[in-house]
Design brief:
With 163 residues, the chain is mainly α. Helices cover 81% and strands 0% of the residues.
């Protein structure tokens, strides 16, 4: 039974390699639309934010698609939709927050202790936690309102495709 689920969870190459840039593009468009609606894109970091949100969607897709397919295998349409919805939402948010935290870490690394020291470990952990908190407070808003529409549409399409 588990081996059957694992086999069904393996996406085809087109699903993986075409879907990832499409999902990344949807997240990019979502972030840019939210920036435009909020402040007319008047920020010095538009390019950096575009790269961050595109990369978050692009890199999350290969991880969340097999996970969602694993949980959606031989389930009703509603359960398949829920599996894709939760996996895509959580995975994309987590990957984008991780990338933001790593960018944050690179910026602050000039003031951190040498690699591998106990102080460095604490600085790495707390810098990452601070970045994730900042992303949760400020960055999640850029997934709304268009990202939610993309999430519904993509989850529904994937749920319908999978039997």
């Amino acid at each position: 039974m588990i081996s059957e689920r694992l086999k069904a969870a393996r996406p085809s190459f087109p699903e993986l390699f075409v879907g990832a840039p499409l999902w990344g593009t949807q997240m990019l468009i979502s972030a840019m639309a939210a920036l435009y609606l909020r402040n007319g894109m008047e920020t010095a970091h538009v390019r950096d934010l575009a790269i961050l949100y595109f990369a978050g969607g692009l890199l999350a897709w290969p991880f969340v698609l097999p996970l969602a397919r694993f949980f959606a295998h031989r389930r009703s349409l509603e359960t398949r939709f829920a599996a894709f919805f939760v996996a895509l939402a959580a995975g994309t948010i987590l990957m984008t927050a991780f990338l933001f935290a790593m960018d944050y870490r690179v910026f602050y690394s000039a003031w951190h202790a040498p690699f591998g020291s106990l102080t460095w470990v604490f600085q790495f952990a707390f810098t990452g936690a601070s970045a994730v908190y900042q992303f949760a407070v400020l960055g999640l808003r850029l997934f709304l309102p268009l990202g939610l529409v993309c999430l519904f549409g993509t989850s529904f399409a994937l749920a319908k495709r999978m039997r």
